[in-house]
Specification:
With about 200 residues, the chain is α+β, with helices and mostly antiparallel strands. The protein has two domains: about 140 residues, Roll (Pnp Oxidase, Chain A); about 35 residues, no CATH class. It has a seven-stranded antiparallel sheet, covered by helices on one side. α7 packs across α8. The protein is globular, with a radius of gyration of 19 Å.
Length: about 200
């Protein structure tokens, strides 16, 4: 049966615990700040003008991934990527983001939702310099919701357990996949270019 209303949805699930709603903050408290300082990875979600959703990973060294300006303001440097600008284009059209931050070895995650804007002010970007290079822009997030997410998803995934690691040989290389998907693409050339970019174009 397709569920087409919140009432029908709630009818098939147990009610949430009271603390699930009470834990949602409208600012970054000391625990959120500490989590952000330790996180090297987040996934940022945004949506296009037509409502279609998009999600993208962002990674950097702990302390460089996210910069807290104040209790309600978070900065994410936009480091070099594929230059398609999917997320940034979405934010111009629909200025809201959902963020999930990860810390290696921890099963809890930190979720932050809020209004986002793209800023290129040199003074704002200065604290975001890494390896002597400034990002071209930053995503400035005005925090509307922040909360710690329970561990169940990552416990089920066993993502940090060594025995759960999958040998890379079980899946084609990035270049091999693109060569199958793009007519005339050369797998070896793509893999070499990707490796070079990862060495010299991270910042």
């Amino acid at each position: 049966m397709a569920i087409d209303s919140v009432a029908k949805l709630r009818a098939v699930y147990r009610p949430p615990r009271a603390r699930s709603g009470l834990k949602v903050l409208d600012h970054l408290d000391v625990h959120c700040r500490n989590f952000l300082a330790l996180s090297p990875l987040c996934v940022i979600s945004s949506s296009r003008a037509d409502g279609r959703a998009d999600a993208s990973p962002r990674g950097d060294l702990p302390g460089s991934l996210a910069h807290v300006l104040d209790d309600r303001t978070l900065l994410l440097p936009d480091r070099p990527g594929n230059r398609q600008l999917d997320t940034l284009s979405n934010l111009v059209e629909r200025p809201y983001v959902g963020l999930v931050f990860f810390v290696p070895g921890w099963n809890e995650t930190l979720r932050v939702n809020g209004r986002a804007e793209i800023d290129t002010d040199p003074e704002l970007l200065a604290p975001l310099a890494s390896r002597g290079k400034l990002p071209i822009a930053a995503i400035k997030v005005t925090v509307e919701e922040a909360y710690l997410h329970c561990a169940k998803a990552l416990v089920r995934a066993r993502i940090w357990e060594p025995e759960a690691r999958v040998e890379r040989s079980r899946f084609p290389t990035y270049g091999q996949v693109l060569a199958d998907q793009i007519a005339g693409a050369d797998a070896a050339e793509i893999d070499a270019d990707s490796a070079q970019s990862a060495r010299t174009d991270l910042y």
